[in-house]
Design a protein that fits this description.
367 residues; flat; disordered C terminus; 39% helix; two-stranded antiparallel sheet; Rossmann fold; alpha/beta; six-stranded mixed beta sheet
Length: 367
C-alpha cells in the first residue's frame, strides 16, 4: 500500500524549523531587554505572541523552546524562577548587535583603520620606495627584484637602495569610549518606550567592541538625578526611575573615567531624549527645574561641553526628540563641544550611532 503525502505551496517567506527557532530566540532576547530582565514576564509575552500568530506546532512547541533555552545555557531556574545566565546575557548583546547591523553595509577590515599610512602593523597592498627605518619584514620581494632586473639585467644582477620597495602599512589606533544612557522619567513618558532601543544600542556597541576591538576601553554609565557607572552585565536590565536629567553629572563622570585612559582617541556617546533639567551644585545638592530650559542648568551643562572639548573628548549626542527648543539646545551644546549631534527616530537610533562609531575609527585625532 503506497503512502500519500500532501505538500503545501512554498512561500518565499517560509522558514525552516531551525530558522524559526533562531527567530524566536532573538525575539526572546528583545523581550528580556524590554522587561529589564524579568524572564518570567518575557516568556509569558512570547507565549502570547506565538499563540496569536500561530508560531508553535507539533514540530516546535512552547515547551520545546523553553527546554532549548535551558539546553543552550541561556536561562536557569533560581529558587523556582527562570533567570538569565552569564551566557544568556552575552546572547542579548549578540542579538542586539545583529539586529542593529542587519541593514548596514559591511565595512572592510577588522581594526581601527585611519586614512594615514605609516609604521603600523597591518600591511596594505600598495608599495613605496624604501626609507631608512622601514622594517625588513615589510619588503616587497617581487617589486624589489623586478626593479633590480629591469635596471641591470639578469646576467649582471645587483641590488641597490633605489630598487627596494616596501609595503605600505596602516596606522591602527585605540579608543576609549563611554556610553551614557539617559534613565530619566521622560524615557518612558507618554507611554512611549525609548529606553529599550537605547539599551539595545548600548548592548550592541559593547558586543562590537568586544569582538572587533578587544583592546579598546569601554565603560557604560547612566544619568538621571545623578550619574553612576554600570557594568555590561547590568546593562540589559536598566530601568527608568522617577529622575530628572542631570546631563552635566553624566559628562563629568565620563571625563573622570576617560582621564585615566592613555588612549589618544576619547569619545562619549550620549543617548538622551530630553533637555537637561537638573545639576548638582558645589555643595552636592541637586537643583531641579523640569519646566523649560533653565538658564542656570543650561549654562552649567554648556560649560561641561567646553571642558570636554578642552580635554579632547568628543561628544556625540543622539537625540530622540524634534522639539525646536530642544533641537536648539543640542545644537548649541554640539557647537560648544565641537562634537556631533543626531536627531533620529527610535528605529534609526542604532544605525546612526554605529555608523558614526565606525567612521570615528577611520579618523586620526591628534593628541
Amino acid at each position: 500500500m503506497s503512502r500519500r503525502f500532501t505538500y503545501s505551496r512554498w512561500r518565499p517567506g517560509s522558514q525552516t524549523d531551525e530558522q524559526r527557532l533562531q527567530s524566536l530566540l532573538s525575539l526572546f532576547s528583545f523581550l528580556v531587554v524590554k522587561t529589564s530582565g524579568d524572564v518570567e514576564q518575557a516568556l509569558e509575552w512570547l507565549r502570547e505572541i506565538a499563540k496569536r500568530y500561530g508560531v508553535f506546532d507539533e514540530a516546535l512547541s512552547f515547551e520545546d523552546l523553553l527546554q532549548k533555552l535551558k539546553d543552550l545555557g541561556l536561562i536557569e531556574e533560581v529558587n523556582g524562577t527562570p533567570a538569565m545566565t552569564t551566557r544568556g546575557v552575552q546572547k542579548l548583546r549578540q542579538d542586539a548587535l545583529r539586529q542593529i547591523f542587519q541593514n548596514l553595509k559591511k565595512a572592510p577590515g577588522g581594526e581601527h583603520e585611519t586614512p594615514h599610512t605609516g609604521e603600523g602593523v597591518d600591511r596594505l597592498s600598495e608599495t613605496r620606495s624604501w626609507h631608512f627605518g622601514d622594517l625588513a619584514t615589510n619588503l616587497d620581494l617581487t617589486s624589489t627584484l623586478s626593479n633590480a632586473f629591469r635596471r641591470g639585467g639578469i646576467d649582471t644582477f645587483s641590488l641597490q637602495e633605489e630598487d627596494l620597495r616596501v609595503y605600505e602599512t596602516e596606522h591602527t589606533s585605540s579608543c576609549a569610549t563611554i556610553v551614557l544612557v539617559d534613565i530619566s522619567h521622560s524615557m518612558v513618558l507618554y507611554g512611549e518606550d525609548r529606553i529599550t532601543p537605547a539599551k539595545q544600542v548600548a548592548l550592541a556597541l559593547a558586543e562590537l567592541i568586544r569582538i572587533r576591538f578587544p583592546k579598546d576601553y569601554l565603560a557604560c554609565a547612566v544619568f538621571g538625578d545623578d550619574a553612576r557607572v554600570v557594568s555590561l552585565a547590568e546593562l540589559p536590565f536598566l530601568t527608568v526611575g522617577p529622575y530628572h536629567t542631570n546631563t552635566r553629572a553624566g559628562l563629568q563622570l565620563a571625563r573622570q573615567l576617560l582621564r585615566k585612559r592613555g588612549n589618544a582617541n576619547k569619545q562619549v556617546f550620549m543617548i538622551t531624549d530630553g533637555k537637561p533639567s537638573a545639576i548638582t551644585d558645589d555643595a552636592g545638592r541637586i537643583y531641579k527645574n523640569p519646566f523649560g530650559l533653565d538658564p542656570r542648568i543650561v549654562n552649567k551643562t554648556l560649560d561641561e561641553a567646553v571642558q570636554c572639548r578642552r580635554e579632547k573628548v568628543t561628544v556625540s549626542t543622539f537625540m530622540i526628540a524634534h522639539d525646536p527648543m530642544l533641537v536648539d539646545f543640542v545644537e548649541e551644546f554640539t557647537k560648544a563641544n565641537q562634537g556631533r549631534a543626531y536627531f533620529s527616530s527610535l528605529d534609526a537610533l542604532g544605525e546612526f550611532i554605529f555608523v558614526d562609531y565606525l567612521k570615528n575609527r577611520r579618523r586620526r585625532i591628534a593628541s
